[in-house]
Specification:
By secondary structure, this protein is an alpha+beta fold. The protein has a single domain, classed as Glutamine Phosphoribosylpyrophosphate, subunit 1, domain 1 (4-Layer Sandwich). It is built from 7 helices and 14 strands. It has helices spanning about 15-20, 25-30, 70-80, 125-130, 135-140, 145-155, 160-180, and strands at about 5-15, 45-50, 60, 80-90, 105, 110-120, 185-190, 195-200, 200-205, 210-215, 220, 235, 240-245, 250. The strands form 2 sheets. A 7-stranded antiparallel sheet has the order 3-2-4-1-11-10-12. Strands 5, 6, 7, 8, 9, 13 and 14 form a 7-stranded antiparallel sheet that branches. A hairpin with an 8-residue loop joins β2 (about 45-50) and β3 (about 60). α6 crosses α7. The radius of gyration is 16 Å and the shape is globular. The two termini are about 30 Å apart.
Length: about 260
């Protein structure tokens, strides 16, 4: 059910999430420790980062596992960024394969990755979530999946305040899922160049793991600790994490 990692701080190579650590996303692709559903995450690899020249992120995605891509390892050692988001994918049955389904997804200044799934997304629940989007947000979707619709809902609510957009999204999506009496796993990380917002949440489902760590170079958010070093703290269930260059705050998910 996917693994992800996000970073904000001093510029470091993308490989610090994808390949270098002892429990990097490459390792989590074939040997995850805390996966709730599934066994491996080998259905795609992606990374979004900001190069400091443009508020819109760059994006590299492949339908390969990290060790299969001919270019990503070398690129990730040479590309540095102060903000990036990376993920490895475990495809949900019925959602489909291919690079368009691989997180992170980007739109305007935002990038996002979802760790989870929704029951009945290919039914009435998904139909209602898609129908609730504005025409502008609907037009941003290049493919149909629960992750893409969740991100499009954030885009729909975003007007400069990322925490508020994510909070409003979860209020709307949570209410819709409960009205359909469905279950959902909804861990989500959304970032722009200057901040990261992450949520650990589910509805009638065991919650996927999520951790935060403060390091000398910056702050990490990850599905599982990337290394054996100290400082990895579990994000409580049903909580929101907000990371900026100044501080990191964790609070219950709900109205801000």
């Amino acid at each position: 059910m996917c693994r992800l990692a996000a970073y904000l701080g001093q510029p470091i190579p993308l490989a610090e999430a994808l390949y270098r650590p002892s429990h990097s996303l490459q390792k989590q692709a074939y040997a995850p420790r805390e996966l709730v559903d599934g066994y491996v995450n080998v259905d795609g690899t992606g990374v979004a980062w900001w190069d400091g020249t443009d508020p819109q992120p760059l994006r590299y995605v492949t339908s390969d596992a990290p060790w299969q891509d001919a270019n990503l390892r070398a690129l990730s050692e040479r590309i540095t960024s102060k903000t990036f988001l990376a993920a490895v994918r475990s495809a949900t049955p019925g959602i489909g394969m291919g690079t368009l389904k691989v997180a992170p997804f980007t739109e305007g200044p935002l990038a996002a990755a979802h760790n989870g799934s929704m029951e009945n997304f290919r039914g009435a629940l998904g139909q209602e979530l898609v129908a609730s989007l504005s025409p502008e947000a609907y037009a941003t979707m290049q493919t149909l999946s629960d992750s893409v619709v969740l991100f499009a809902t954030v885009v729909d609510h975003y007007s400069g305040d990322l925490v508020q957009a994510v909070t409003d999204t979860f209020s709307h999506v949570d209410a819709t899922i409960r009205r359909h009496e469905s279950w959902a796993a909804l861990n989500l990380v959304v970032a722009d160049e200057h901040e990261i917002v992450a949520v650990r949440h589910s509805i009638d489902r065991p919650q996927n793991s999520l951790y935060v760590a403060e390091r000398p170079t910056g702050t990490w958010i990850a599905s599982e600790p990337l290394d054996e070093g100290p400082g990895w703290a579990t994000v409580p269930e049903d909580h929101l994490v907000h990371v900026t260059t100044e501080n990191t705050t964790i609070r219950p998910l709900g109205p801000s």
